[in-house]
UniProtKB/TrEMBL annotation:
PANTHER family: CYSTEINE DESULFURASE (PTHR43586), CYSTEINE DESULFURASE 1, CHLOROPLASTIC (PTHR43586:SF8). GO terms for molecular function: cysteine desulfurase activity. SUPFAM superfamilies: PLP-dependent transferases. Keywords: Pyridoxal phosphate, Transferase. Residues 28-405 form the Aminotransferase class V domain. The keyword Protease does not apply. Its EC number is 2.8.1.7. Transmembrane segments: none annotated. The lineage of its organism: Bacteria, Pseudomonadati, Pseudomonadota, Alphaproteobacteria, Rhodobacterales. This is Putative cysteine desulfurase. It holds the Pfam family Aminotran_5. It is an enzyme of class 2 (transferase).
Amino acid sequence: MFSDTLLTEIRDRFAHVDACPFSGPRVFFENAGGALTLKSAVETSAKFAAIPDNQGRDNPGAQALGAIIKQSKADMATFFNTHIGQFFVGESGTELTYRLIRTAVMGTPQGSVIGSTVEHPASRSAAQHWATVAGKPYISVPHDDATGRVTAEAYAAHMTPEVRVATILHTSPVTGMAIDVASIAAAIRAVAPECFIIVDGIQHASHGHIDIQSYDIDGYVISPYKVFSRHGYGVAWASDRLSQLPLEALIDGPKENWELGTRDTGAYATFSDVVAYFGWLGQQVGDGQTERTHIEAAATAIKAHEKELTDAMLFGTGNLPGLTDLAGITIIGGADNPAREGLVCFASADVPAEKIVAHLNDSGIRTHIRKADHYSGNILTPLGLPAAVRVSMCHYNTLAEVSAFLTAMKELTDA
């Protein structure tokens, strides 16, 4: 885990780290719904919200904004680890996921579209919708209920040479389990080498490094508010060959251009704040010499710290029993799952999920209920669960906060 000194420094960089502006002191275990925001991103947002100039004009203000966007795209390339393709921002991660999938499905010949049942509706709904519009069959790859994941072998069993577009979820926001994108992409290309592969990295981004260079994919999307920036925009990367498909663009406008309208310079600039934060953290925990090696060191340390937190929550800490010690508790994806990324989702046979969430809220601990609805039914319904409690942590959370959670859970189950 991080040392107490470093953890204090980390927490000091985030807004509202230990108190809600509306309800007062609280433990924030709702990071999968939206992580805490860097103070630097808050300051950057305010700075750029006040600037009246737009890009593309012949004046110093416009030129400065253009340079900031250019630098941010270079920072994105470092963070995602790719120097091909292009980055752009949009309304949200979901909106950008729809755009990439729509472009791929509508711009390819007749064939089929493949995705898995573990996916968030951001990609699954988009793929099914545009497959229907294009008259392309949709192939649904079943995930493993026991582990909360889908494998390359599962994709391979359903692949045909006619698959034109594939979607992959990098990490589930319900199970918390990471999925091996590179191996699935390889299984897809082994059968359909020209397939366009789009990845939903929204849940994954804050927990581990992104390495597009190693994935052999065509699109990757994140939501920056889930990786320490602010709401109101998403970030997408598109490969060069995806950008060569017919794009929605202004007539006689620039070719291979995903950007429509004036850009929000503040969105780009706040993502540079995120990259700078990862770089700072990497320098505290590693001895790398480049921006990329700093980011990789930060990601490795984040994974280790969060594993300590989730292990404590599952198996106990000090004299406090873990969730696995409490009667009637089911851990979604299994308690001993190496793919877990900072998230524990559980259900009780004795206490309804909404009562658990309410009790934790009353105890000053913010969690979230996942119901078997259009967001989470794909995971919970096969398990026979109407709802579950999601406890999502990030690297700025502490062992003391986990202890507070376990104390509150013990009080509830002992009552």
